[in-house]
Amino acid sequence: STLQFLSLASTCCGNVQVIMMICALLLRDTVLSHLNLNSTGLSDDGVTLISESLAHNTNLTSLCMSGNALEDGSAHEIAVTLADKNSIQHIDLSNNNLTSTGMHVLIQSSTVQGQMRRLE
Known about the structure:
Blueprint (H helix, E strand, L loop, with lengths): L4 E3 L8 H13 L5 E3 L7 H11 L7 E3 L7 H13 L5 E3 L7 H14 L4 E2 L1
Parallel strand pairs: 1-2, 2-3, 3-4, 4-5
Helix pairs in contact: 1-2, 2-3, 3-4
């Protein structure tokens, strides 16, 4: 596949079937570099599934999940993925329900990871 940029921003793609399709894309698409899931109704459970798929994707550099009411559990899932993943350079989690605890976990993970250039 040659899909490099996928934006589903402001769509209702937070349901399980759509999340599973995104996960399948992440697992098989070796050129996808930017994924925008801003304001999609994405849940913490959806982030868990996506994070598990990201563990097998080496080319995604930008992940945007702003405006989804995500909580600290999502920050933890992403942090675990970041600790093992070098390609992600930009994550946007603005306008979610993250506390300072969730942001601290992300900052620590991005410091260990070393490739992060932008964390929102």
